[in-house]
Amino acid sequence: MDLRAEKLNLLEWLAGLNDPKILKEFIILKKSREMHWWDEISKEEQLAIDEGLDQLNRGEGIPHEQVMKEIREKFKL
User: Fold this and answer.
1) Residue 68 contacts by C-beta under 8 Å, 6 or more apart in sequence?
2) 34-39: Cβ within 8 A, 24+ apart
3) Which of 16, 59, 61, 65 is deepest in the core (most CB within 10 A)?
4) pTM for the full model?
5) How much is the pLDDT for 57?
6) Per-residue exposure over 48-75, b if at least 16 CB sit within 10 Å of its own CB, e if not
């Protein structure tokens, strides 16, 4: 049986499943296989994001409107 047929067979079986324990096992399996974007970026990117959030928490952020105005002026948009 090809992969597509196996998936459809599994989906049909899962759709009719009423056992909460087995469903919970599938949910746990699914979550264990999901990669969070944070884990996919480099340590340097993580540190830069953390520093940016710290700056925002200290009130050092620049309003979106101001950033957009500067971008429009810089690139003559």
Assistant:
1) none
2) none
3) 61
4) 0.47
5) 93
6) eeeeeeeeeeeeeeeeeeeeeeeeeeee
Interacting residues of 38 by C-beta distance below 8 A, sequence separation 6+: 46
Cα maximum dimension of the chain: 61
Six-digit token pair at 34?
A: 């999901």
Tens-digit pLDDT profile for residues 2-49: 999 999 999 999 999 999 999 999 999 998 888 888 988 999 999 999
**Tokens linked to 39:** 């884990």
Q: How far apart are the first and last CA of the chain?
A: 56
Tell me the helix, strand and coil percentages in the chain, rounded to 5: 75, 0, 25
**Is the predicted pLDDT of residue 1 greater than 70, yes or no?**
no
The whole-number pLDDT of residue 44 equals 97
